[in-house]
Write a structure and sequence with these properties.
About 40% of the residues lie in helices and about 10% in strands. It is of the alpha/beta class and about 475 residues long. The strands form 3 sheets. It has a 7-stranded mixed sheet, with helices on both faces. Strands 1-3-2 form a 3-stranded antiparallel sheet. A 3-stranded antiparallel sheet has the order 11-13-12, with helices on one face. It is globular, with a radius of gyration of 23 Å. Bound molecules: pyridoxal-5'-phosphate. The site of pyridoxal-5'-phosphate has 14 residues, from helix 8.
Length: about 475
């Protein structure tokens, strides 16, 4: 196992109380006992793991010694440090799981501030209001078993009307409702990508999409944000799919200008490459920012993914794909195998919410939190590069020295979970970055900046740089 994979699996290992070597041994013990590190698995060498965790080598040696004394690992000159026991044929090592998913599996009561996953901290009052409105609708349902692999017709209709209003004429047959944007991306990856296929992505981009493409064995190739150079790369590499986040891009917050949208959408149609545009952050504009038209406005071939998770609340688990009807039919068949369809009450409530997307009045609060965090960072960490943005929920911050992975480890020891940039950029250029979100309450953002500042003061970049996950670039 490479050190960076070990780091990802160790998650928030250092957030508890006690000496670091005990915390490290505790987390490794749990991974071994749960079978996540199977018998025979090779653990990283002392020095490499110490570098990746930004701790001294003695911390790793002491943790390994503890586990060896318990009989959980073996250590031999030449064959390295391994989980004790005989490897069985069933014990295959799972593919590494991205920190963004691992973090959502961690307990929320360990005092660690900021979650790695950026999303609204509470459902806005409109969610309860929408549920109150559907109670009488639910009591009127009869003769309906409630299984809708395409999505409930009422919500498909509401989503279609939303796109029509955004300048993209859409019928309900062009809409598949999914359990969040992530399921939409997974279904699309499954339908469109076969092992070894090339997929063009922005560098950096949303790591959940990278994981969905990797799951299907894709070979990822990174282009600058906005898929700059798409046409030449598409002709050269014949990708199976291209993926872009045109509005309030995750993580950079950038917005693709109108002409570039048109050029990209038309180029994708010309070279016959399915272009997935991810609109999940598209409704996160700061006050006064116009809502740009989706890329689908410029070509029928563009596939659009959306969700209510960032604009309203992730707990709704409502997302969708807007695509030509034959693809929607294919995705619905795949989706039926996964879960036979989504929760109907949530979809009925979502139908009311979709029609209110432009009037929720959440933009002021989002901007206020952004301004608050940005002002604190400028004041307390003036050497950090924090670009201006006009919407979104994250800051893509360049550290003046060191790397995001080892700094994120240091921050964790100060009770702060931040996302290192390396996992977001398949070209490797994301290593000096961290992603900070500003969805938390202002008091939490203030405390987070205090912890960041202390962590930065104590941060000593490792002398030998820790290699990030290899980019599956060609
Ligand atoms: C760009 C982007 N796409 C998709 C998703 C997944 O959306 P959902 O939470 O609706 O599954 C996210 C979540 O962070 C995201 O940022």
């Amino acid at each position: 196992m490479r050190p960076i994979e070990a780091v990802e699996r160790l998650g928030r290992w250092s957030s508890g109380r006690g000496p670091l070597y005990v915390l490290l041994a505790t987390r490794l013990r749990r991974l071994i006992d749960d079978g996540e590190l199977p018998p025979g698995a090779l653990l990283p060498a002392d020095r490499a793991l110490a570098g990746a965790l930004a701790v001294g080598r003695t911390t790793v040696v002491a943790a390994y010694d503890l586990l060896r004394a318990e009989g959980r690992i073996t250590r031999h000159q030449g064959s390295g440090t391994r989980v004790a026991g005989t490897p069985t044929s069933a014990a295959t090592e799972d593919a590494p799981v991205d920190p963004i998913f691992l973090d959502s599996l961690e307990s929320r009561d360990d005092g660690v501030l900021l979650a790695i996953c950026a999303a609204p901290g509470d459902p806005p009052p409109q969610v309860a209001e929408a549920y109150a409105r559907i109670v009488p609708e639910l009591s009127r349902i009869s003769g309906d078993i409630g299984y809708y692999p395409y999505g409930h017709p009422v919500l498909r209709e509401a989503i279609a009307a939303r796109y029509t209003g955004l300048g993209v004429p859409t019928a309900p047959e062009h809409v598949l409702v999914t359990n969040g944007g992530q399921q939409a991306l997974s279904l699309l990856a499954h339908a469109l990508v076969s092992p070894g296929d090339r997929v063009l992505v922005e560098a950096p981009t949303y790591p959940g999409a990278l994981e969905a493409f990797r799951e299907e064995g894709a070979v990822l190739r990174g282009l600058p944000v906005g898929l700059e150079g798409f046409e030449a790369a598409a002709r050269d590499l014949r990708p199976a799919v291209a993926y872009v986040i045109p509005t309030y891009q995750n993580p950079t917050g950038s917005v693709l200008p109108r002409l570039a949208r048109e050029r990209l959408a038309r180029a994708a149609a010309a070279v016959d490459v399915p272009l997935i545009e991810d609109e999940v952050p598209a409704d996160l504009g700061f006050p006064g920012e116009p809502r740009p038209a989706p890329l689908a406005a410029y070509s029928d071939a563009v596939i659009t993914v959306g969700s209510l998770s960032k604009s309203i609340w992730g707990g709704l688990r409502i997302g969708w794909v807007r695509a030509p009807a034959p693809l929607v039919n294919r995705l619905a068949r795949l989706r039926a195998v996964h879960d036979l369809g989504g929760n109907v009450p949530a979809q009925l409530a979502a139908a009311h919410l979709v029609s209110q997307l432009d009037d929720l009045g959440l933009a002021e609060e989002l901007k206020a939190r952004h301004d608050h965090l940005r002002a604190l960072l400028t004041q307390h960490l003036p050497t950090w590069e924090v670009p201006q943005i006009t919407g979104g929920q994250c800051l893509w911050v360049r550290l003046p020295h060191g790397d995001g992975n080892s700094f994120a480890q240091t921050a964790l020891r100060h009770g702060l979970a931040i996302l290192p940039g390396s996992g977001l950029d398949v070209t490797g250029a994301g290593d000096p970055y961290v992603r900070l979100h500003f969805r938390a309450r202002p008091t939490e953002l203030t405390e987070a900046t205090t912890r960041l500042t202390t962590a930065w003061r104590t941060y000593h970049p490792p002398t030998n740089r820790v290699p990030s996950r290899p980019a599956l670039a060609i």
